[in-house]
């Protein structure tokens, strides 16, 4: 039993003296775990990095076995981001969420395509990383897991304009008019989450991360009695620092 297709490396851990256990997200077959012989060798160090796009080759005697993995590097990701902490944190958060939230061997072609697009954009602009694009990707992850939010119209008035909040109970958008006296019980909805032309600013990103994080925790991780991945918590801390930096006029060249 064997197959070959594009994949993204999500997680790597040590296995024995020279090998690795790899978790990858494939284009058509979903998430796979496999062993990489000699993955820690000097010759393969540049290949086996989290976030890299590879052409993966998986082989096992039986389909249900763990299997062995070899690969060719298509596009590295982490190597472009070493000098850009926020970009590296975004990559780590995306990989951690996938590796901990997705069920093994369930296809997620749309999610794979979207993650590939995000990683490409991240590599092109690491100093000004696409935070808005990443947070919209988190909403897609929720949708792929069966917990998509409804952000195209107000749950109260039916209007598609003036959307400002999301119900923490239903995950549906609510307009300023529709919120009324209940607005203090709703979650803020930054416009960039439903408007792909909007990029938002640091304060908007933090609100967006709080929104998607709330539903990821409640709908996905809490059901398994687990917290959000540590990498996702580090992203929240980085966005909080970005808000402080923007309020004091010390953003610098990179959004950190």
What can you tell me about this protein's structure?
The chain is an alpha+beta fold and 256 residues long. It contains six helices and eight strands; from the N terminus they run βββββαααββαβαα. The protein has helices spanning 85-101, 109-124, 131-144, 176-179, 202-221, 230-248; strands spanning 2-15, 19-26, 30-36, 53-59, 68-75, 163-166, 173-175, 187-188. The strands form two sheets. The chain has a five-stranded antiparallel beta sheet with strand order 3-2-1-4-5. Strands 7-6-8 form a three-stranded antiparallel beta sheet. The radius of gyration is 20 Å and the shape is globular. Involved in DNA repair and RecF pathway recombination. It comes from Bombella pollinis. Keywords: DNA damage, DNA recombination, DNA repair.
Name a few traits of the molecule.
256 residues, alpha+beta, five-stranded antiparallel beta sheet, 35% helix, DNA repair protein RecO, DNA damage, DNA recombination
